[in-house]
Design a protein that fits this description.
The structure is a homodimer of 240-residue chains. Chain A is built from 12 helices and 2 strands. In chain A, helix 3 crosses helix 4, helix 7 packs parallel to helix 11 and helix 8 runs antiparallel to helix 9. The N terminus of chain A is likely disordered. The relative contact order of chain A is 0.09. Chain A has 2 domains: 81 residues, Arc Repressor Mutant, subunit A (Orthogonal Bundle), CATH 1.10.10; 150 residues, GntR ligand-binding domain-like (Four Helix Bundle (Hemerythrin (Met), subunit A)), CATH 1.20.120.530. The first copy, chain A, is mostly helical and 240 residues long. The first copy, chain A, is elongated, with a radius of gyration of 24 Å. In chain A, strands 1-2 form a two-stranded antiparallel ribbon. Chains A and B meet through helix 2, helix 4, helix 5, helix 6 and helix 7 of A and helix 2, helix 4, helix 5, helix 6 and helix 9 of B. Chain B binds a DNA duplex (30 and 30 nucleotides) through helix 4.
Chain lengths: 240, 240
DNA sequence: GCTCCCAGTTTGGTCGTACCAAACCAGAGC
DNA sequence: GCTCTGGTTTGGTACGACCAAACTGGGAGC
């Protein structure tokens, strides 16, 4: 009863041949048969190799692209991208941007950022190496020099906060920072014009840095929370 | 007229008609024209309304489904799902599972969990309401009663930790917990058999609870870190 | 021999039609 | 009122065709 077997398999798969093809390719990528930078076969070749229609082949490739496992551009063979937490977070992008519509969405995300970064500040205060400290010092210096250039200040601000994430050497956290920045950026641009805030924010960074350098987790967390809470007030202010 | 609009737009974009359609629908969802639970039009109707081929219509719907904006099942009209952080994290699932292949992937993720949960433990110690405390107490009680049933213990364990996330009332964090559990679960099942560990883990939970109840953030964090670090050792042990 | 250009080929994107199977629906027959 | 039944709806799949842009190879011109 081969037919029944096929039908059963289909039923188990919710009846989608494309899903099976999708799984086939993702497993190939997982196993390393398809390495980063490799290209998928042309659609017409997939058709022939796997005995499916081009419809199915295309759907599978689209699914791979949607999940960030391959990068597909018109008229180019899809390129395999080894999945990173970055690409994972990328795939959330469009969904998250929808959530930003509601004020609570922004608030919740920001709150999460505060919690995460507060933890990182403590971590930094406890485990920062001299090399970490000097990196932070340099970022702080750059931040100070950019006080009168809001665009530049934004960059150096981002860099300073980003260092807290990078110091862990944990790609998940590094990707998380990128996500925070990317998702919250739209809320930020509106307040970039408040130049007088730059000096205040720089001072806050100094406080955080000092606490980390002294190895005082409580002070580091407190300073960071003050800093971000203040930033939140500014964001919320431009809302209402 | 709508037809001409669509065609013009496409000409400007030089391709990717499906992306246009995708944006059209996601904006409808964002604006609330399509509410949670509503159904998308049948594919053949989309074809007619927007003057595209069924290929394009299907691709757009598929993209919506991949992003978790709609839920599509064979032979049923796609149902609109208001994007939640949960669905966003869902869309990362397949990518993340690939990353778990590398030991570092698991470690990095677990490290992130420790950082997050340590922060939550502090938060709980400082801001837990009597209601929160009693919820924790009940979870702890259930945890104790399940010491001799590993499956049940796993459930109550999960619940106890989950409460730390839920206490914030922040859906981002709640979804994060679900993600941690889901992604790390495969590493967990292998160690469920170590029944003697249950008692140890329960004791750790008690420590955490006590610290929270006393309102001692440092103790709460320390207890939680000890607990998770120990769990990590167990996971790593089953690896090598 | 080298460069440059052009026609033919590859490849993804779109369209249209056709058919299937499961779910749905409405009316017949009891 | 109930069940059975056959037509309709709807998503899934298959072919086949055409387009536009990128790629390729080889010949024209220097």
């Amino acid at each position: 009863m081969a037919k029944d077997g096929v039908r059963e398999e289909r039923a188990a798969n919710r009846g989608r041949a494309a899903d099976e093809l999708f799984r086939t390719f993702s497993e190939m990528i997982a196993r390393g048969e398809l390495k980063e930078g490799d290209t998928l076969p042309p659609e017409r070749e997939i058709v022939e190799t796997y005995g499916v229609s081009r419809t199915v082949a295309r759907e599978a490739v689209q699914a791979l692209a949607n999940r960030g496992l391959v990068e597909a551009r018109p008229r180019f063979r899809p390129v395999v991208r080894r999945p990173s937490f970055e690409s994972a977070i990328d795939s959330m992008g469009s969904v998250v941007s929808q959530l930003m519509g509601e004020p609570d969405g922004v608030r919740n995300l920001f709150e999460t950022r505060i919690l995460t970064e507060a933890g990182l500040a403590r971590e930094a205060a406890r485990h920062a190496t001299p090399a970490d400290i000097s990196k932070l010092a340099r970022a702080l210096q750059a931040n100070r020099e950019a006080i009168h250039d809001s665009v530049q200040f934004y960059e150096t601000d981002r860099r300073f906060h980003g260092l807290l994430f990078e110091m862990t050497g944990n790609p998940v956290l590094i990707a998380t920072h990128r996500a925070f920045v990317e998702w919250l950026a739209p809320q930020w641009v509106q307040m970039q014009k408040l130049r007088d805030r730059n000096a205040t924010n720089y001072e806050a960074h100094v406080e955080i840095f000092d606490a980390i350098q002294k190895g005082d987790p409580d002070a580091a967390e407190a300073a960071l929370r003050r800093h971000l809470a203040e930033a939140w007030e500014q964001v919320r202010g431009t809302f209402k």
